[in-house]
Amino acid sequence: MKTSTRRIAAFAMLTALIVVLQIMATFIRFGGFPITLTLVPIVVAGALYGVGAGAFMGTVFGLVVLVMVLTGADASGQMMLALHPLITSVTCVVKGTLCGAASAAVFRLLSGRNGRAAVLLAAAAAPVVNTGVLYLVLALFFDTPWSAMLSAFMSVNFLIELVVNIALSPAVLQIVTIRRRAV
Protein backbone atom coordinates (compact mmCIF):
# COMPACT_ATOMS: atom_id res chain seq x y z
CA MET A 1 0.00 0.00 0.00
CA LYS A 2 1.42 3.34 -1.04
CA THR A 3 1.36 5.94 1.72
CA SER A 4 1.42 9.51 0.52
CA THR A 5 2.69 12.53 2.37
CA ARG A 6 -0.82 14.02 2.24
CA ARG A 7 -2.29 10.95 3.87
CA ILE A 8 0.33 10.97 6.63
CA ALA A 9 -0.27 14.69 7.22
CA ALA A 10 -4.04 14.15 7.30
CA PHE A 11 -3.67 11.29 9.79
CA ALA A 12 -1.42 13.43 11.96
CA MET A 13 -3.84 16.36 11.93
CA LEU A 14 -6.88 14.19 12.63
CA THR A 15 -5.03 12.36 15.41
CA ALA A 16 -3.99 15.65 17.03
CA LEU A 17 -7.53 16.99 16.71
CA ILE A 18 -8.94 13.87 18.38
CA VAL A 19 -6.45 14.09 21.25
CA VAL A 20 -7.05 17.79 21.90
CA LEU A 21 -10.83 17.62 21.55
CA GLN A 22 -11.11 14.61 23.84
CA ILE A 23 -8.94 16.15 26.53
CA MET A 24 -11.01 19.35 26.37
CA ALA A 25 -14.25 17.36 26.31
CA THR A 26 -13.33 15.66 29.58
CA PHE A 27 -14.24 18.92 31.26
CA ILE A 28 -17.60 19.32 29.43
CA ARG A 29 -20.04 17.02 31.16
CA PHE A 30 -23.63 16.35 31.81
CA GLY A 31 -23.72 14.19 34.89
CA GLY A 32 -20.80 11.86 35.28
CA PHE A 33 -19.84 11.24 31.67
CA PRO A 34 -17.97 13.72 29.48
CA ILE A 35 -19.60 14.64 26.20
CA THR A 36 -17.58 13.21 23.32
CA LEU A 37 -16.61 15.86 20.77
CA THR A 38 -14.18 13.71 18.85
CA LEU A 39 -16.58 11.62 16.84
CA VAL A 40 -16.70 14.00 13.87
CA PRO A 41 -12.96 13.72 13.06
CA ILE A 42 -13.31 9.95 13.41
CA VAL A 43 -16.15 9.98 10.86
CA VAL A 44 -14.09 12.20 8.54
CA ALA A 45 -11.13 9.80 8.72
CA GLY A 46 -13.35 6.80 8.00
CA ALA A 47 -15.12 8.52 5.12
CA LEU A 48 -11.89 9.68 3.50
CA TYR A 49 -9.60 6.73 4.14
CA GLY A 50 -11.74 3.68 4.90
CA VAL A 51 -12.62 1.32 7.71
CA GLY A 52 -9.04 0.82 8.86
CA ALA A 53 -8.55 4.58 9.24
CA GLY A 54 -11.85 4.92 11.10
CA ALA A 55 -10.85 2.09 13.43
CA PHE A 56 -7.39 3.61 13.96
CA MET A 57 -8.81 7.04 14.82
CA GLY A 58 -11.38 5.39 17.07
CA THR A 59 -8.58 3.56 18.84
CA VAL A 60 -6.73 6.85 19.37
CA PHE A 61 -9.93 8.26 20.88
CA GLY A 62 -10.29 5.18 23.11
CA LEU A 63 -6.70 5.43 24.31
CA VAL A 64 -7.17 9.09 25.23
CA VAL A 65 -10.35 8.19 27.13
CA LEU A 66 -8.39 5.46 28.94
CA VAL A 67 -5.66 7.93 29.91
CA MET A 68 -8.30 10.34 31.23
CA VAL A 69 -9.86 7.51 33.27
CA LEU A 70 -6.51 6.32 34.63
CA THR A 71 -5.47 9.85 35.63
CA GLY A 72 -8.77 10.55 37.39
CA ALA A 73 -9.94 13.23 34.96
CA ASP A 74 -13.01 11.11 34.13
CA ALA A 75 -14.86 10.51 37.42
CA SER A 76 -17.42 8.04 36.07
CA GLY A 77 -14.64 6.07 34.43
CA GLN A 78 -12.83 6.05 37.77
CA MET A 79 -15.89 4.47 39.43
CA MET A 80 -15.97 1.78 36.75
CA LEU A 81 -12.20 1.30 37.04
CA ALA A 82 -12.47 0.74 40.80
CA LEU A 83 -14.93 -2.13 40.27
CA HIS A 84 -13.51 -3.78 37.15
CA PRO A 85 -10.14 -2.37 36.04
CA LEU A 86 -9.55 -4.73 33.12
CA ILE A 87 -13.09 -4.54 31.75
CA THR A 88 -13.07 -0.75 32.02
CA SER A 89 -9.69 -0.43 30.31
CA VAL A 90 -10.63 -2.75 27.45
CA THR A 91 -14.02 -1.07 27.06
CA CYS A 92 -12.45 2.39 26.68
CA VAL A 93 -10.39 1.26 23.72
CA VAL A 94 -12.77 -1.24 22.10
CA LYS A 95 -15.80 1.07 22.03
CA GLY A 96 -13.73 3.74 20.30
CA THR A 97 -12.31 1.31 17.77
CA LEU A 98 -15.75 -0.11 17.00
CA CYS A 99 -17.41 3.29 16.61
CA GLY A 100 -14.74 4.36 14.12
CA ALA A 101 -14.92 1.13 12.14
CA ALA A 102 -18.73 1.10 12.14
CA SER A 103 -19.10 4.68 10.94
CA ALA A 104 -16.56 4.08 8.15
CA ALA A 105 -18.29 0.84 7.13
CA VAL A 106 -21.68 2.57 6.99
CA PHE A 107 -20.19 5.32 4.85
CA ARG A 108 -18.51 2.85 2.49
CA LEU A 109 -21.68 0.79 2.18
CA LEU A 110 -23.88 3.76 1.27
CA SER A 111 -21.55 6.27 -0.41
CA GLY A 112 -22.04 4.83 -3.90
CA ARG A 113 -25.79 5.35 -3.70
CA ASN A 114 -26.28 8.61 -1.84
CA GLY A 115 -23.45 10.72 -0.42
CA ARG A 116 -25.67 12.74 1.90
CA ALA A 117 -27.33 9.68 3.39
CA ALA A 118 -23.95 7.96 3.72
CA VAL A 119 -22.48 10.83 5.72
CA LEU A 120 -25.61 11.32 7.82
CA LEU A 121 -25.86 7.65 8.76
CA ALA A 122 -22.10 7.34 9.33
CA ALA A 123 -22.27 10.37 11.62
CA ALA A 124 -25.15 8.74 13.52
CA ALA A 125 -23.44 5.34 13.69
CA ALA A 126 -20.45 6.65 15.66
CA PRO A 127 -22.34 7.77 18.81
CA VAL A 128 -24.78 4.85 18.55
CA VAL A 129 -21.94 2.31 18.64
CA ASN A 130 -19.82 4.26 21.14
CA THR A 131 -22.65 4.63 23.66
CA GLY A 132 -24.22 1.27 22.81
CA VAL A 133 -21.05 -0.63 23.71
CA LEU A 134 -20.79 1.29 26.98
CA TYR A 135 -24.44 0.54 27.81
CA LEU A 136 -23.85 -3.13 27.06
CA VAL A 137 -20.78 -3.28 29.30
CA LEU A 138 -22.62 -1.51 32.12
CA ALA A 139 -25.52 -3.94 31.85
CA LEU A 140 -23.31 -7.04 31.72
CA PHE A 141 -20.63 -6.23 34.28
CA PHE A 142 -21.73 -3.32 36.46
CA ASP A 143 -24.95 -4.35 38.17
CA THR A 144 -24.72 -1.65 40.82
CA PRO A 145 -27.15 1.02 42.03
CA TRP A 146 -25.14 3.81 40.41
CA SER A 147 -25.04 2.13 36.99
CA ALA A 148 -28.72 3.01 36.43
CA MET A 149 -27.99 6.64 37.30
CA LEU A 150 -24.99 6.68 34.96
CA SER A 151 -27.14 5.21 32.20
CA ALA A 152 -29.63 8.05 32.58
CA PHE A 153 -26.88 10.65 32.23
CA MET A 154 -25.40 8.70 29.33
CA SER A 155 -28.75 8.98 27.54
CA VAL A 156 -28.58 12.78 27.62
CA ASN A 157 -24.91 12.73 26.57
CA PHE A 158 -25.77 10.34 23.74
CA LEU A 159 -28.50 12.65 22.45
CA ILE A 160 -26.13 15.64 22.54
CA GLU A 161 -23.42 13.67 20.72
CA LEU A 162 -25.92 12.42 18.14
CA VAL A 163 -27.29 15.91 17.47
CA VAL A 164 -23.78 17.39 17.18
CA ASN A 165 -22.69 14.68 14.76
CA ILE A 166 -25.81 14.99 12.62
CA ALA A 167 -25.62 18.80 12.67
CA LEU A 168 -22.00 18.68 11.51
CA SER A 169 -22.59 15.99 8.87
CA PRO A 170 -23.00 18.59 6.06
CA ALA A 171 -19.49 19.85 6.91
CA VAL A 172 -18.21 16.27 6.74
CA LEU A 173 -19.91 15.85 3.36
CA GLN A 174 -18.22 19.03 2.14
CA ILE A 175 -14.79 17.77 3.28
CA VAL A 176 -15.34 14.43 1.52
CA THR A 177 -16.56 16.17 -1.66
CA ILE A 178 -13.58 18.53 -1.77
CA ARG A 179 -11.18 15.63 -1.17
CA ARG A 180 -12.72 13.56 -3.95
CA ARG A 181 -12.40 16.47 -6.40
CA ALA A 182 -8.73 16.89 -5.50
CA VAL A 183 -7.91 13.26 -6.27
Structure description:
There is one protein chain. By secondary structure, this protein is mainly α. The chain has a single domain, classed as Orthogonal Bundle (Arp2/3 complex 21 kDa subunit ARPC3), CATH 1.10.1760.20. 83% of the residues lie in helices and 2% in strands. It is built from 7 helices and 2 strands. It has helices at 5-25, 39-49, 51-70, 75-83, 85-110, 115-141, 145-182, and strands at residues 29-30, 33-34. It has a two-stranded antiparallel sheet with strand order 1-2. Helix 3 packs across helix 4 (75-83) and helix 3 (51-70) packs antiparallel against helix 5 (85-110). It is globular. The model has no long low-confidence stretch (mean pLDDT 85).
